[in-house]
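Annexin
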Amino acid sequence: HVSPAQHETRGTISDAADFDPTADAETLYNAMKGIGSDKEAILDLVTARSNAQRQEIIGAYKCSFGKDLIEDLKYELTGKFERLIVSLMRTPAYLDAKEIHDAVKGVGTNERCLIEILASRDNKQTQDMVAAYKDAYGRDMEEDIITDTSGHFKKMLVVLIQGTRDESGVVDADLVQQDAQDLYEAGEAQWGTDEAKFIMILGNRSVTHLRMVFDEYEKVAEMSIEDSIKNELSGDFERLMLAVVQCIRSVPMFFAKRLYKAMKGLGTADNTLIRIMISRSEIDMLDIRECFRLRYEKSLYNMIKDDTSGDYKRTLLNLCGGDDDLAGEFFPEAAQIAYKMWELSAMTKVQLRPTIRPASDFDPAADAQALRKAMKGFGTDEDTIIDIVTQRSNAQRQEIRQTFKSLLGRNLMKDLKSELSKNLERLIIGLMMTPAEFDAKMMKKAIEGAGTDEHALIEILVTRSNEEIQAMNSAYQSAYNTSLEEDIQSDTSGHFCRILVSLVQGAREEGQADLERADADAQELANACNGESDDMEMKFMSILCTRSFPHLRRVFQEFVRHTNKDIEQIIKKEMSGDVKHAFYAIVRSVKNQPSYFADRLYKAIKGLGTDDRALIRIMVSRSEIDLFNIRKEFKEAHDVSLHEFIQVETMIVSPSPCLLTLFCAYVLFSSLCFWTFFRVAFDSHSEHATAHSSSAAVVGYGNL
């Protein structure tokens, strides 16, 4: 691990040689003299000086011209560019103090700003900030934060404000074990959570000590400390504790994630972008750039370039300090983090959590009668259909299908198809099928017609177990009188076809990693990267399509050690088209399958039009497996709940919310917590809407 002392030389801004504060003051004065201002001269000078040198320039400016440089800059500049330049002229402590003050003043609190600053600063930075706050505002920072926050969130902030974390670097092995055990007993091992224990340990122990505690915790709890925090805590307190853990593991990676979230999606969180780019420019910006590239396969420089404009962009790019070659080798810090990420993935046993569970007091005959009544006569009682189908497990729905036929002599699937339309019909029918029937149908839909939905083929074949793939093959043969393998071969070609055929065998190895073989596999992949493109793809296929997921985690970890590169970057850089997408999906699924599905959902919903088929496919197929985990990953990646995101995005696409939103709200949160009911009116997307298409659906969701 890189020590804080080493980070001091990892900035992009340093002292300028042959520095003359008086000459610089004059340059700035001339740049602001007369009508208009020479913004380019201002930004070039300010970003080429260290913060200490800028303070000297402020003093020289006042001596030479009897004016306040910051006030002149505020007067001459405007908008985001003004905010950026003025912030660069403040000392780090006063900039942090101002950010905290802005976060707590007025109506509402910017909790994310408080979390970012207080979780990431060392003792000296925190103490200097507290003193600057007192000097600038004549108020006590701790008192202002206590007034503006509450609960455990407030208590942890107060602990962090003290700036008294142990920085001795001395580690007591017995205390490491004790802390790991105490954290386990405070959370996972009991009903309810002892938040005070989390606060005491995470708020006071040294960075080196806590890194060892986190490793020990994984052995005790069989999950990462992050997963436990997500399970045990909630709201701002959860976000704060996760931020503290991330900063203990790697401050640069924490800021890389913050920067990405500040720029992705619609609009840019400019205050966050400005604050981080300035505060880290002399500390660890080079490491942040490397972590950014490692995690997002895109350089920070290019993301800023694409997301900002004008003098504001030029200033930020100067602070960033340069572009990074996409597949270049890691700095030691980033390579170490990449290796550790795979190690974490290999060690952590994720507890998969569904959102649909079997209904208690289940009565298939009563459900069959209720469904028949809902479809009898003029119009359809969609409320009842949605209510029954989304509150029963798949096994219970199969019982309802059978009982409907034996009791009423009718085919439930045919009745539902005749009564429902468009997305609601697709959704309900999908839920009523067995998982194997549903997967088979989704594969058929992806293959048939003019175009092929390669992403759907990849998603299904990469994420299903051997047993699920074999059941799907049987269901496909039964439904369509042809083999799925033959249809894939007819509809795809080349290496992509061979990858799919390999996966559709449902013969992936099972079991844990063989460490010696994993090292050999990693070496073979590394060697293949230096060969011909065809040979490389065949070698990747022979390993990625056949080895077990636990084994592949170790292979990808050792690949970093052999090459000083991450497997994801190699795939993105060296491969193309559907082959790239298939291998990338395998790597993402091996690393974190719920995160892969969260990403697939984001892409299905984002942009012009919603990919309803992908949305239905994932929500239906994962509802009894890991949809709760997917929801958590989505929230962490995009800072918005999946439920809210679907509602917002489908409202943008169409004046009437997509029917799927109703199901999403239901499935995401059903059976997990306190039930709330609300009615949502919706209209059919079809121009030939039947009378019942605008009826209301009762949708349940949990207050999570």
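thats it. Strands lie at 675-681, 696-702. The CA atoms of residues 22 and 60 lie 5 Å apart. bye
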